Amino acid sequence: MFKKYFKKYFQITNYQLPITGFTLIELLVVISIIGILVSFTASRYQTAEKQARDTKRKSDLNQYRVALENYSVANNSLYPTPVGSTCVDSATSLCDGTFKTNFLPSCPDDSRKGDTNYYQYCASGTSYTLNSMLETSGKIWQVCSVGQSCLTTQTTYQTTNACLCP
Known about the structure:
13% strand, 166 residues, five-stranded antiparallel beta sheet
């Protein structure tokens, strides 16, 4: 009798928790963490894009430099002089006529061409400078006819043919 009474009142049963989904708080925490990670990734991607465009700008100015030096060798150490101004957009002044045909088969141009993004060419016959605004620093990258290239302290394009590299 004791056994029967004990089993009836103290019998251990298998108790299972009810199966439920995620709570609203858990879902909101996960969504906010994913949002933060996506924002970090997007900002890193934009920075990498800017650096890649700046590297292309430096490479394009080097292509212009090589073409200008080849022109100088063929023309008694003289460089092409812009018509009407000391400094012009290199894509419109150097990428036409015989200079393009003989010295610069493909004419590089800034992929984000606009008011502040273009390649500037300044020349006076015996010297030149090539300038481009870099996106990451907001300063001018300059290539000079004396063989120097540097990041200047200028934040706007210059109006003279002065080499600002030390």
